[in-house]
Structures are given as structure tokens and as C-alpha cells.
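Minimal example, chain plus FE2/S2 (inorganic) cluster.
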Amino acid sequence: MPKFESHIFVCCKAGKCDKDGKEKLRSAFKKELKHRGLNPQVRANSSGCLDQCDEGPTVVIYPQAIWYGGVKLDDVERIIEETIVGGRIIEELVIPDERLNCKKKD
Ligand code: FES
């Protein structure tokens, strides 16, 4: 089996980033990776809370450590195409460094 090149961690915390708890966002990443023949080199993993709840639905891509927030199903194809394949960051989805790991707003 080839070495993993990237892991896409998708927050699947039910009721928060994953509103209905059905992991639709993660499934969409898996489906698109398979469709493009990118698995198993790139893997979409479900994750628990990534502590960016105010920015959710949250996705982080390693090893690049690219944090995306407010990710919608419609963003999946673009993330795979632009970030995973093209190596480009989608600026409008990036959670800015100054908001990462911040305490939640009240
Ligand atoms: S519930 Fe998704 S980042 Fe916290």
C-alpha cells in the first residue's frame, strides 16, 4: 500500500459541525477521492471536535496543516481539485491564524 500523502480530517461531531450526525461531509470527501483515484494516498478521516466549533463545519488537512471552516458539501470538489491536487489554498475557506485555538465567543 502506498504511503499516505494527505489526511483530510473532517469534524463529525454530531449536532455541531455535523448537524444531522450522518457524516455527509466526510462521505462526500471519500466519494470524491475515490472518484478521482486518489485513495488510498489521500484519506478522509472523521474526527471529533477540532476545537474550532465557531468556525465549523471544520476540516483540517495534514501534513500541510490547512484549516478550513464553514465547509459545505458544495466545497468538497473544489477542495480536492484546488488544494489536494493543485496544492493551492482556498483563501475564503481558511480559518485565520488569529482565530485558531481561540476560546469560543459567548
Ligand atoms: S464541533 Fe467541530 S470543531 Fe468543534
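The two ends are 46 Å apart (CA to CA). Residues 11, 13, 16-17, 49-53, 56, 58 surround FE2/S2 (inorganic) cluster (CB under 6 Å).
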